[in-house]
Amino acid sequence: MRAQARLRNLRLPSRAAFATCADEMSATIHRLDPGRPAPSLDPMMSLVAADMNAVNAVILDRMQSDIPLIPELAGHLIAGGGKRMRPMLTLASARLLGYTGTRHHRLAAAVEFIHTATLLHDDVVDGSDLRRGKRTANLIWGNPASILVGDFLFSRSFELMVEDGSLKVLKILSNASAVIAEGEVNQLTAARRVDLGEERYLDIIGAKTAALFAAACRIAAVVAERPEAEEAALDAFGRNLGIAFQLVDDAIDYVSDAGTMGKDSGDDFREGKVTLPVILAYARGSDEDRRFWKDAMMGHRASDEDFAHALSLVRSTRAIDDTLARARHYGQRAIDSIAGFAAGKARDAMTEAVEFAVARAY
Per residue in 237-275, is it b (16+ CB within 10 Å) or e — as a string? Predict the structure, then answer.
C-alpha cells in the first residue's frame, strides 16, 4: 500500500466545486450511456492535434543520439502505432484549463518517454514477443539493449523536466516514476499468486498504470498556475481513467486477438499473469477450478485447450462481466472528477476518451 500512500501525499484540499474529485462517485453527473453511438478518441485527437505536432517534434529531437542503436530501438516502439494517450491527456487537460502557453509540450514529451521506458523494461521482465502487433524490441535487439535504451529515455524525460524549471512538476513526475517502479516490483513479488486478492491487485495497477495517467493530467494545472483543487480534480480524473483502462485490458486478453489489441488473445494467461478476471474466477470457483487456476498460473496448463477451459471459467463465474463493471465504475469516477470545470469541447473530448477506454471491450 506504500505506493498509494506516496501518491496520496500529493493530494491537496479541494474546494466545494470540485468535491467530486475525491473518492466518492456522483450518481447524477455525466452518466456513461450505453445507448449512445460508439465513443471515439477522435474528438480529443482533433482537440490537441496542433499541440501534438509540437510534442512529436520534441520526441523526435530528444530520442536522437550519436549511438545509432538508441534512436533505432527507441523509434521502433515510439513509432509503433500507440495512440500516445498519456501525452494527449496532458495537452487536453491544458486545453480544459484554457492554457495558451507552450511549456506543456516538453512535459507531454517527458510523459511519453517515461511511458516508453517502462514498456521497454516491462517487455524484458515479462519475456513478451509482441507489442502493438509488432515484435518487441527485446526480441529484436536483446534484453540488455532494451533495458539500456529504456534508461536513456528515462534520463531524457528528466532532462525535459529540469528544463521546465518547476520543482512542483519535477516532484509530480519523479514521484510518479518511483511509484510506477514500486508497482512493478509489487507485481513481481506477487507473480503467479492466484490468491492475490482484489485489493492488492488494485494497488498494483494503481501504481504501475494509473500513477502516470494521474501525473500527466495534474502537471497541466501546475503549468497553467491553477488552484490546487483543480490539480486534485485532474489527478483524480487521470487516476480513475488509468485504473479503468487497465481493467479493460485485463478483460480484453480473454476476449480479443492480435488484430484488436496488438497481442494475442490469452497472452496474459499463458504468461501466468494474475489479473482481475483470474482473481475473481479463482475466488468463485470450485476446488477443481482452483486447482486448474493454480496450475495454469504456474505455467503447467498453457495449451489451447487449457485456455479454452479458462475462457469457460471466466465466463461462467461472470469474472469478465464484473471486471468490466468495475472498469465502468472507475470510468464514471473519472468523468465526475472534471464535472466542476466549464463545459466545452475539452471537457466533452475528455469525457468521450473515458468512454472510449471502457468501450474497447465491446
Answer: bbbbbbbbbbbbbbbbbbbbeeeebbbbbbbbbbbbbbb
Over residues 50-71, the pLDDT tens digits come to: 999 999 999 999 999 999 999 9
Cell numbers given for 322: 464484473
More confident residue, 321 or 10: 321
Question: Alpha helices of 298-362 — where are they, by DSSP H?
Answer: 304-316, 319-337, 345-359
Assign 362 a pLDDT band (cuts: 50, 70, 90).
Answer: low
Alpha carbon separation from 81 to 75, 121, 191, 211, 216 (Å, rounded): 11, 18, 29, 22, 20
Q: Whole-angstrom distance between the N-terminal and C-terminal Cα of the chain?
A: 32
Tell me if 218 sits within 8 A of 231, measured CB to CB: yes
d(CA 271, CA 267): 6
Q: pLDDT tens across 341-351, in order?
A: 999 999 999 99
* Overall average pLDDT of the 353-362 stretch: 86
In 3-state terms, what secondary structure has residue 134?
Answer: strand
Please answer whether residues 290 and 313 qualify as being in contact, where contact means their C-beta atoms are separated by less than 8 angstroms.
no
In b/e form, how buried is each residue of 205-228, taking b as 16+ CB within 10 angstroms? bbbbbbbbbbbbbbbbbbbbebee
- 233 in Cβ contact with 17 (< 8 Å): no
* 146 touches 74 (CB < 8 A): no
CB 180 within 8 A of CB 54: no
- Residue 321's contacts (CB-CB under 8 Å, 6 or more residues apart) are none
Query: What is the rounded distance in angstroms from the CA atom of residue 330 to the CA atom of residue 209?
Result: 13
**Exposure letters 106-126 (e unless 16+ CB within 10 A, then b):** bbbbbbbbbbbbbbbbbbbeb
- Length of the chain equals 362
Contact between 179 and 50 (Cβ < 8 Å): no
pLDDT at 113 over 90: yes
Whole-angstrom distance, CA of residue 84 vs CA of residue 61: 17
Q: What phi and psi values does residue 130 have, to the nearest 5 degrees? A: -140, 130
